């Protein structure tokens, strides 16, 4: 183990290659998280409601049938074919199977290998940018969490606390060693990130009577503020708002989407936060160069 760590420290190519392979495997797990975590949360909410409203009733099936990130084993949704180990190799298995179940030929969504490949590529970019060390490790972990949050929000318009708060605590803890920013900047960044969107939420609700965003967005921006510091929060907000506005207008114009239909803001925050973590200073410099 020590020899492997030393080799990664001495060889950037080996380090980035290792991150790429590990992140491919993690990407496969993230597909499970993206699909199962919202279902787990919904079942937990239903169970809590049932226990509160009907404390004497017990759903024996719910208690005896496990459903978590490990169990049950992955199966084909159509024929219930148990997916074997060789059918679950990131990207490769999808290509070998030509995007179909080996038993019933039911199509397998291309999103699965895309999530795996995106996880590996973005994680490798983070590793290359920071080089071997704590900053790269944290940036890669943040990348994994942001990818999971992005796709869950796209699917369910939900940002689970399990992910947003994990990222928040990671940002606060690593700030003790000034990994990205100081502890003071991280704490202020977390507080300002939350309060900023919380204030916009209530201002919009008081003016229109509608909810413009969810509490998960507040927590995500707080987590990003802890990572990049309060000084970089304007970059995150401007980037996410700019991209969100472009995508929203495009959906209305091209697809004829209803203006009142909500659009998840989490993916834009996640993308802007990731770019700011890696290239925030460069983006600020480019902005001022354009003005001056």
Explain what this protein looks like in three dimensions.
It is a single chain. The chain is mainly α and 292 residues long. The chain has two domains: 1-116, no CATH class; 133-287, no CATH class. The chain has eleven helices and no strands. It has helices at residues 2-10, 12-53, 60-64, 92-96, 111-130, 134-156, 161-174, 183-208, 215-228, 233-255, 266-291. It starts with a helix and ends with a helix. The model has no long low-confidence stretch (mean pLDDT 89). GO terms for molecular function: aspartic-type endopeptidase activity; methyltransferase activity. The chain crosses the membrane at residues 12-37, 130-151, 163-181, 186-204, 233-253, 265-284. Belongs to the peptidase A24 family. Residues 21-130 form the Prepilin peptidase A24 N-terminal domain.
Give the number of domains.
Answer: 2
Tell me roughly what share of residues is in helical segments: over 70%
- Rounded to an integer, what's the Rg over CA atoms? 21 Å
Number of helices: 11
- Strand proportion: under 5%
- Calculate the mean pLDDT score and round it: 89
Q: Which class best fits the helix and strand makeup? A: mainly alpha
Unreliable stretches covering 5 or more consecutive residues: none
Rough shape? globular
Q: Got a strand count?
A: 0
Largest sheet: none
Distance between the ends: 51 Å
Tell me the series of helices and strands, N- to C-terminal. HHHHHHHHHHH
Secondary-structure topology with pairs:
Blueprint: H1 2-10, H2 12-53, H3 60-64, H4 92-96, H5 111-130, H6 134-156, H7 161-174, H8 183-208, H9 215-228, H10 233-255, H11 266-291
Helix pairs in contact: 1-2, 2-5, 2-6, 5-6, 6-7, 6-11, 7-8, 7-9, 8-9, 9-11, 10-11
């Amino acid at each position: 183990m020590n020899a492997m760590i030393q080799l990664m420290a001495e060889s950037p190519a080996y380090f980035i290659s290792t991150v790429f392979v590990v992140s491919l495997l993690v990407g496969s797990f993230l597909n499970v998280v993206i699909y199962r975590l919202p279902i787990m949360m919904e079942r937990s909410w239903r169970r809590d409601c049932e226990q509160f409203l009907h404390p004497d009733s017990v759903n024996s099936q719910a208690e005896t049938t496990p459903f978590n990130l490990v169990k049950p084993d992955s199966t084909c949704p159509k024929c219930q074919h148990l997916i074997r180990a060789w059918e679950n190799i990131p990207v490769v298995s999808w290509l070998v199977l030509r995007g179909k179940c080996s038993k019933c030929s039911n199509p397998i969504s291309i999103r699965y290998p895309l999530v795996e490949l995106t996880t590996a590529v973005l994680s490798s970019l983070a590793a290359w940018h920071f080089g071997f060390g704590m900053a790269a490790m944290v940036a890669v972990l943040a990348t994994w969490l942001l990818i999971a949050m992005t796709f869950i929000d796209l699917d369910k318009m939900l940002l689970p606390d399990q992910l947003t708060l994990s990222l928040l605590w990671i940002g606060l803890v690593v700030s003790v060693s000034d990994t990205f920013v100081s502890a003071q900047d991280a704490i202020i960044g977390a507080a300002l990130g939350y309060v900023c969107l919380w204030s916009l939420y209530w201002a919009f609700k008081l003016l229109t009577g509608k909810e413009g965003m969810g509490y998960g967005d507040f927590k995500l921006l707080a987590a990003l503020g802890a990572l990049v510091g309060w000084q970089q929060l304007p970059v995150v907000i401007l980037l996410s708002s700019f991209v969100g506005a472009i995508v929203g207008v495009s959906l209305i114009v091209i697809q004829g989407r209803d203006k009142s239909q909500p659009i998840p803001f989490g993916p834009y925050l996640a993308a802007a936060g990731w770019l700011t973590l890696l290239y925030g200073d460069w983006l600020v410099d480019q902005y001022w160069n354009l003005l001056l």
